[in-house]
Design brief:
Elements (H helix, E strand, L loop, with lengths): L7 H11 L8 E2 L2 H7 L2 E6 L9 H11 L2 H4 L3 E4 L3 H13 L3 E6 L4 H9 L3 E5 L3 H15 L2 E2 L6 H17 L5 E5 L4 H13 L4 E7 L4 H8 L24 H7 L2 E5 L1 H15 L5 H11 L1 H6 L4 E6 L16
Parallel strand pairs: 2-10, 3-4, 3-6, 4-5, 7-8, 7-10, 8-9
Antiparallel strand pairs: 1-2
Helix pairs in contact: 1-3, 1-8, 3-5, 3-8, 5-6, 8-9, 9-11, 12-13
């Protein structure tokens, strides 16, 4: 049996650890979107989580699990936005410093939120090497504990609590789909779901222009992200050494979608379900609504993890379109 970075017991322990701080997010549905998909879709609404995204689950678990000695030195991470906000808030709740390395191109709304939670921001170039190098420099100078945004066992366990809740509320699901960036969410989801319901279908979704997970799955080896360019800014990172094995073994298939399909799905959810989601969330919805999924999956009751709702309202993707 393969050993992964987290287990179902770890995920259950994380759920207990974050319970005083995290929201138990609702499950919602939309008859119109389900009809369009030809399936019963149940949306796990992580846009209603603290900081507006599932990322708070993992960050809170990691921060609250630190020993008092380690916590006193603070925490450091690199993130384009949602993990940055999540770690800043979790650190604030514990009364410690959060050092956040962010690419200078990060969403203004997410940068403002990090500052609002008391995070100390360090700018870097928008690439993985710059993020990791800057974070290492900050860690060396401060002694802070590095909390990787996804390639971290405690992060994976925390993110898995969303699927744990989803299956507690809807044990009749025969599939779950979630967006894939670095793989923390899909890894936690896959571990929780496959442990609780062996045989459940686990699907991933990612932008065609940031498709390292789909390429890795097809090749049978972890391949790096190649110059990703997508409006789904939460999905720009490559899989990590802890998340790739889970994706390789437990995620049945990864579906890719175009930028236009992301826009269409995002707008559809806003208009018909009345749910504000960000592009990264819309990727999973777009996948279900398009032909590759229709012709491949026979699942009829699908849990869709809507990963977040932090949107720059001054730069909506459909503005200026005819």
């Amino acid at each position: 049996m393969n050993t992964y970075a987290a287990t179902l017991d770890d995920i259950r322990a994380a759920a207990a650890r974050i319970k005083p701080y995290a929201h138990r997010t609702p499950i919602m549905s939309c008859a119109t979107i389900s009809e369009m998909a030809g399936r019963d879709l149940l949306f796990k609404c992580e846009q209603f989580q603290r900081i507006g995204a599932f990322k708070f689950r993992g960050a809170c678990n990691a921060v609250m699990k630190l020993s008092d000695t380690d916590a006193k030195r603070g925490v450091v991470t690199h993130s384009s936005g949602n993990h940055a906000q999540a770690l800043a808030l979790a650190a604030k709740l514990r009364g410690i410093e959060a050092h956040i390395v962010m690419p200078h191109t990060a969403s203004p709304i997410k940068r403002e939120a990090v500052r609002g939670y008391g995070g100390i921001i360090y700018d870097c170039e928008p690439n993985t090497e710059a993020r990791e190098t800057t974070a290492a420099q900050v860690q060396q100078r401060t002694g802070a504990a590095l909390i990787h945004p996804y390639d971290n066992a405690d992060i994976i366990a925390g993110q898995g609590t969303a699927a744990l809740e989803l299956l507690e509320d809807r044990p009749d699901l025969d599939a779950i789909i979630a967006p894939i960036g670095g793989g923390g969410l899909i890894s936690g989801t896959a571990i929780a779901a496959s442990s609780l319901h062996p045989g459940i279908h686990i699907y991933g979704a990612e932008p065609l222009s940031a498709d390292d997970a789909a390429r890795s799955k097809a090749a049978g080896q972890c391949l790096p992200q190649l110059a990703p360019k997508t409006m789904a800014d939460g999905l720009l990172t490559s899989l990590g050494e802890r998340t790739w094995p889970v994706v390789r073994d437990l995620v049945e298939q990864i579906f890719t979608v175009t930028e236009e399909q992301i826009v269409q799905a995002m707008r559809l959810v806003w208009e018909r379900a009345k749910l504000i989601i960000e592009p990264s969330s819309a990727v999973a919805v777009a996948a279900i609504l398009n032909e590759p999924f229709r012709s491949t999956s026979k699942a009829q009751r699908i849990g869709v993890i809507l990963s977040g709702g932090n949107v720059n309202l001054d730069a909506l993707p459909w503005l200026g379109r005819k």
